[in-house]
Amino acid sequence: MCLKQGVFKTKITLLAKKRRRKIGHILISSFFRKATNIAFIRNFLKSKLQKGLERLNLSTLDCFLLLNPETYLSWAKLKKQNQQDARNEFNERIRKAFTHLEKEIENGRIRCYGVSSNSLCLNTKEYEFVSLESLWQIAESISTRHHFQVVQFPFNLFENSGIRESNLSGNNSTIAFARMKGLGVMVNRPFDTFIRNSFVRLVDIQLNESALNVNEKELVRRIDDTIRETADIEDYIIEEILPALNTDKAEKKAIKKKLSLSVLLEKYWKKMSSCAYIQELQSTFFDKALESISKDLLAVSQDPDYNQRWLQRYEEVIRLTFNSLNDYYLPRDYRRIQTIRQQLNNTYYGLDQKQTLSQVIVSLLRSTEGMPSRYDTYAAIG
Predict the structure, then answer these.
(1) What CATH number should be reported for the domain holding residue 134?
(2) Range of 12-21, 33-42, 351-360 with top mean pLDDT
(3) How many domains, the chain?
(4) Distance between CA atoms of 339 and 319, rounded to whole angstroms?
(5) Do 233 and 84 share a structural domain?
(6) Residue 25 and residue 117 in one domain
(7) Residue 94 lies in a domain
(8) Entry pTM
(9) Using CA atoms, how far apart are residues 321 and 209, in angstroms rounded to an integer?
(10) Do 190 and 230 fall within a single domain?
């Protein structure tokens, strides 16, 4: 059993400074300032591990992964910090985290640990590059009998720099170095990839002719209509419901800031690129935002039944918007997948046409030169 936790992960909040006019991006960086303290890192990891064990009803985890530690480097780049200074600080935080995880192994709560990162396979010139060799050296400096045994990174048909990019000493790739050191490799996103900045899910799509030949103008009209209704509901809540809430100005202001989903939809719906991206955005951001708005508003409402009806309509209209967005992008996804299948057939002779696209991709990944076997990939775990 493996658990991932984001020790250095930042929180990004999107707020509309002026509703339906301008949107600002605010990055909250207090997490990084706190993380310089070894006590904070120790307590954070201890707490997350304990919650994970309780949730899974276990006393011991096979593996604990630090999730996306490179977000610290992204923050440092945004702040225009010297790259070497940022990397030194990053390595120190990794050392502190690894030191604590070795103690968790002594306490019998985990058997090994590792890192899950999107930056392990980048070119060395990239600011956010995370060197597997450096991670290994940090673990070795803590103990020659350390338990840093697993790494995870994206690897799929289009993102294959884990083998292709020679970014470590001795002209080694990340996967070559992992094999050399006996590290277990866990593949992340084998079917989710980015193609020309579009998020694409590499699975077959079943689509009937009516869904393929949709009236795009009608769909655009439906999307625009539901976004306008979303904005109208937000305006009504702000102008009519917020003033009557039984709370102070600061709480009302906080709720008002959250009532900006129409701004995000209006600004970004034409850039969502695929149904997979839309579904991810809906589940990880919009659904949680709606839940938060409803919870905050009803907690201080003097007429909860009346306000609940407005909130239900608010949620319903946003769901209708996402349904229309899926209808709009689904034909594009279908045509893209058909093009990929045709390109694979043209490139690789003798592919089994009865296999699904995901089966073809797994077969191709396993046959890629330098790709570890199933045994090599998971041997280090446990």
Answers:
(1) 3.20.20
(2) 351-360
(3) 2
(4) 30
(5) no
(6) yes
(7) yes
(8) 0.76
(9) 22
(10) no
Residues 40 and 37: their CA atoms lie apart, in Å, by 5
Asked whether the beta carbons of 155 and 187 are under 8 A apart, the reply is: yes
The DSSP bridge partners found for residue 65 are 4, 114
Q: How far is Cα 168 from Cα 57, in angstroms, rounded to an integer?
A: 39
Q: Torsion-angle region of residue 80: left (phi > 0), alpha (psi -120 to 50) or beta? A: left
**Average pLDDT over every residue of 339-359:** 88
Assess if residue 65 is contained within a domain: yes
7-11, 72-76, 283-287: which range is least confident on average? 7-11
Query: CA 230 to CA 270: how far, in whole Å?
Result: 17
Q: Across the chain, what does the average pLDDT equal?
A: 85
Residues 181 and 234 in one domain: no
Distance separating alpha carbons of residues 199 and 201, to the nearest angstrom: 7
Q: Which residue range forms the structural domain that includes residue 288?
A: 209-341
Find the Cα–Cα–Cα–Cα dihedral 238, 244, 250, 255, rounded to 10°. Answer: -40
Q: Which strands sit side by side in the sheet containing 148-154, from one edge to the other? A: 2-5, 61-67, 110-116, 148-154, 184-188
Give the count of beta carbons closer than 10 Å to the beta carbon of residue 116: 21
The pairing of strands 22-28 and 61-67 is unpaired
